[in-house]
Each structure stands twice: as C-alpha cells, then as structure tokens.
Amino acid sequence: MSTAPTIPVFKLYGETHHWPTPDLLHCESIPERSALHDWHIRPHRHADLVHLLHIARGQVELELEGSHQPLQGPLVIVVPSMSIHGFRFSPDVDGHIITLALPLVEHLAQASSGGLLQQAASHQLTQPDSARRIATLVAQIDEEYRHPAPGRARMLEALIQALVVALSRLQESAGRGARGSHRPQERGHQHLVNYQALIEAQFRRQPSVEQFAAQLGMSSAHLNTLCRRLADRSALQLLHERLLLEAKRQLTYTNMTVSQVSDSLGFSEPAYFTRFFKRHTGLSPREFRLRQQSGEPHKQDAPGQTG
C-alpha cells in the first residue's frame, strides 16, 4: 500500500530497540505500557514478531490494515507479523500482551498449532468456561515470565502451546474465518517470510546474503532492498539478529563454554564471535553471562525503554 514506507517497524510493543530478552516470548500487562502512551499505540508493524492480546475487560479500538473496529473484552486479538496495526485502549482496560519471536512462531507452526498465528483475528470470549480457561493460561504465562524458576523456558513453551491450542479450538468452533480478518500478503511480504524461514533453518552455517538470495531466486541487491523496505534492516542485519538471539539463549540457559557457543553458531574462531557479540551488546559473552546469572539488567537490553 502507498503508506507503507511511512509506517514504523517496531522491534517490540511501541519500541525500536533490540529484543530485550534471551527468551522467545515477552509478556507484560497492557496498562503498564499503554498508559505511558496515553492509551494509544499508533499504527506500526513488526517484521518478525506476533502479538497475542488478551483483554479481560475494557474496550479497544483496533486499527488493522487501515480498518477500525471497536471491541469489548473479554477477547483475544491475534496480530501476525507484517500486519499494520494500532490500538486505542480505554483507561480501565485490563489484560496482557504476549509477543512471540519468529523462532517460536516457526516452532509452533511445526507442531501443527501455529496456523492461528499467521492470520489476523479477534476471538470474542463469550463462553464463561472458555474465558476462564484463556485467562488462567495468560495469568500463568505472566507469572512464569515475571518470576523465573528452574525449567522456565520449557514451562513457557508448554503454556504458550496450550494457549494457542485453546485459541485454535475457539476458532474452529466459531467457524473458519467467522471472526477473523485476513488480507493476502503482498508478494514482497511473502519473500521476506521465506527469507526469515531460510535464516531460521540455516543461520548456524552463516550463509552469505548472495547464497540466501540465490535460494530465493533473486539478486542480493533485491533482497537487501526488500528487507530494508519491509523490515527496516538489511538482509545481513536480520541474520546477525538471529545469531545474537541464539548466542544470548545459549549463554543464559546452557553451560556451554564461549568457545562451544562460537563453534555452534558457525564462527571461525572464538575471538571473532566475542568481537561480534560485544559490537552488538556492548558486553563480552562472559560479561553477558555473569550479568544474566546475577540478575543485573543491561541498560541496552532492558525492557521498558522507548525508541
């Protein structure tokens, strides 16, 4: 659409800084963020994130691909990647926003539960049992996210899978597409989705942008132009962001040495990996691991800062 170049591409909920956590999921209440923006999140899109909004009570005006829809809780809204969206909440709104990074979305799709995450939709929770079940799962995700405990990553994955399955059941009972709104992606959007899928499958080998472009049947210049237009980053930056996310996860959740992490991510030597990591985070891998173990936030990666 003609207005697409003016639509900001956010890394998180109204933000432009990097994904703030080694987790593949981010959860926060709607009031704690929206109140800072006068309850209005202006239209934007995400190149590689999916939103699940649970509104227990209150109203929201959903702007999706240029259309406006007033909605009343309790309900769940699904906003897939690349969809231009905005929200205007009532000040009495109560609910949560769960943001899923692309690797987790891909995993859910492979587990046959992810089709729901590829289509924009709103699901009104008209049945008390369904509303209670969804609210319980969201509350459990929020509790697990805010209070880390052993097995946290596995628990969060299990809970989000349960939530997606519960929402899929709602969608099926309501009839396919009865409450959803879906606009076919532009061809360029599909190319970006395909490139992101290639990154997910091959990032550990670190193919060149030229090799990725050849697999997609286009020139590297065309791929770079497409990524900058739709994701506001170069093709190489998207690959580097995936490498960085995996490095953070391994440094946080495994006992692998820095050398082992370097090897697992396709770096020719640990010194090169250390320079790469420090250039993007301001910390060496060892410093990052020590901060994660101590629970001390790194100001560049801490949630809650606006870009």
Automatic annotation (TrEMBL):
InterPro entries: AraC-bd, Cupin_HpaA-like_N, Homeodomain-like_sf, HTH-like, HTH_AraC, Tscrpt_reg_AraC-type_HTH. Pfam families: AraC_binding (PF02311), HTH_18 (PF12833). Gene3D superfamilies: Homeodomain-like (1.10.10.60). Keywords: Activator, DNA-binding, Transcription, Transcription regulation. Residues 193-291 form the HTH araC/xylS-type domain. Signal peptide: none annotated. CDD domains: cupin_HpaA-like_N. The keyword DNA-binding applies. The keyword Transcription applies. PANTHER family: ARAC-FAMILY TRANSCRIPTIONAL REGULATOR, TRANSCRIPTIONAL REGULATORY PROTEIN. This is Helix-turn-helix domain-containing protein. It comes from Halomonas mongoliensis.
